[in-house]
Write a structure and sequence with these properties.
Helix content: 10-25%
Shape: globular
CATH class of the largest domain: Mainly Beta
Number of domains: 2
Strand content: 35-45%
CATH architecture of the largest domain: Beta Barrel
Structural class: alpha+beta
Number of strands: 9
Strand order of the largest sheet: 1-3-4-5-6-7-8-9
Length: 159
């Protein structure tokens, strides 16, 4: 059966639109992979300890140190002084942050947990690669010379 010229053109347009839509979906996902496929994406993670310089320091809940990963690629990190936010892209074995900004509150205190938390969260600089591993409800993130261990706190909606 031969298609007339109008029908061939219509079929070509439909196929082209389907292929274009597939390309756009693939390109809009971080690193070609939807964030939701990463085990940490879509959750708020409460940091329970930070390791640095051969020492592991517990982070009690009242310090409110946490990481957030929305399914659509937004990243948030809270330490006792400032909130950091931007975007993240899933990479092999972790993620990379970008377009980061933060609130600009100063801290003149000497609390070692606050100082360590500020330094660790500040290590998530633009285009810095972080390694991430999820084991059950525990997330371990290594960024720079810091390793943060966090517990899954709950689902995180897009913001």
């Amino acid at each position: 059966m031969r298609l007339n010229r109008a029908r061939r053109r219509a079929a070509f347009v439909v196929v082209t639109e389907v292929l274009l839509a597939a390309v756009l979906v693939a390109c809009s996902s971080p690193a070609g992979q939807p964030a939701s496929t990463a085990g940490f994406a879509g959750y708020k993670w409460a940091v329970v300890s930070i390791s640095h310089g051969g020492k592991t320091t517990p982070v009690p809940g009242e310090y409110s140190v946490y990481l957030q990963f929305t399914p659509d690629g937004h990243f948030g990190a809270n330490e006792p002084v400032n909130y950091h936010s931007g975007n993240y892209q899933v990479t092999r074995g972790g993620f990379t942050t970008s377009d980061l900004g933060q609130t600009l509150v100063g801290y003149a205190g000497r609390d070692p947990v606050v100082l360590l938390s500020v330094s660790a969260i500040s290590a998530f600089d633009n285009e810095v690669r972080a390694l991430a591993n999820v084991n059950g409800s525990t997330l371990t993130v290594t960024v720079g010379s810091y390793t943060l261990t966090a517990q899954r706190g709950g689902r995180q909606a897009n913001f």
